[in-house]
Amino acid sequence: MTASALTITPKLHSHIQTLNPKTSFPSSCSCSCSSATENNAKLTWESNVVSKRSVFNVGIGLLAASVVALSPLEANATRVEYYATVGEPLCEMNFARSGLGFCDLSVGSGIQAPRGELINIHYTARFGDGTVFDSSYKRGRPLTMRIGVGKVIKGLDQGIFGGEGVPPMQVGGKRKLHIPSNLAYGPEPAGCFAGDCNIPGNAILDYDINFVGIYSGNRALPTNK
To answer: What is the pLDDT of residues 156-178, one digit of tens each?
Structure first.
C-alpha cells in the first residue's frame, strides 16, 4: 500500500502542474488585469469625451433651432398682429343713399369683381368703438367669398361689387367701409355658438378691405347660344 501510494503521488503532482502551470498563470493574470484596467480607463475617458461632445452638439442644435424657430415665427406673428389690430389710415368717408360709408385708400389697377364670381379678400372687421371682432390676417389666409349675389351682408356686396353710387372695387384696391346695422346683421345677434354671440344686434361695423384677386378655382360661366 505504501509503495503504491508513493508511485501514484508524482503522477498526481505532475497532472496538477499541467493544469496550473506556475510560470504562465500569474503572468497571464497580471497582464490580463493590467490590460483590463487600462482598457477600462480608456473607455471611461472616451465615454466622457463622447458624452461632452454630445451635450455640446445638442446645445448647439437647440440654440440653432431656437434661432430658426423664434425669429421667423415671431416676425410673422408680429405682422399678423399688426394687420389684425392696427387700422388702415383714416380717410374721408363718402356716403351712399343706402347709408353705406366708403373711401378708397388705393383704387387698384386690376379688374373689377364679376357678379357671382368668387374673389379673395383680406379684411379686418371692427365694431364702432374700434374693437376687432374678426380678421382674415389672424387666420393667415384671405377669405374666399362670392360677390354680388347676396351671399354676404349687403354692406359688403355693395361696398365691394358697387352699386347705388358706390364704385366697384378693383383688384389690388384697398377700401374702408362703414356699414350701418341695416346693411349688416340687423337687430338679431350674429356669429353665435353655444349661446355666445360674437356680434350683438344692431351693431354698426367698420371694415378694412384689401381686394387680393379673383379666385383661381372659378368655373367658366355658361354662355347663351
So the answer is: 999 999 999 999 999 999 999 99
CA distances to 57, 115, 215 from 222, in Å: 63, 13, 17
The number of CA neighbours under 13 Å toward the Cβ of 169 is 30
What the block records as the C-alpha cell of 57 is 452638439
Q: What is the residue type of 193?
A: F
Amino acid found at 120: N
Enter the C-alpha cell of residue 38: 487600462
User: Which of 20-27's residues contact partners 24+ apart within 8 Å by CB, and which partners?
Assistant: none
State pLDDT tens for residues 88-138.
788 999 999 999 999 999 999 889 988 999 999 999 999 989 999 999 998
112, 139 contact by CB (below 8 A): no
Say which residue the cell 362670392 belongs to: 146
DSSP bridge partners of 177: 102, 207
Name the DSSP letter for residue 78. Answer: H
| SS3 sequence of 165-191 | CECCCECCCEEEEEECHHHCCCCCCEE
The DSSP secondary structure of 193-223, one letter per residue, reads ETTEEEE-TT--EEEEEEEEEE-TTPPPPP-
d(CA 110, CA 121): 14
pTM of the model: 0.61
Phi (first) and psi of residue 174, to 5 degrees:
-125, 130
Q: Are 141 and 72 in contact (CB under 8 A)?
A: no
Q: Which ranges of the chain does DSSP label H, i.e. alpha helix?
A: 2-19, 25-85, 136-139, 154-156
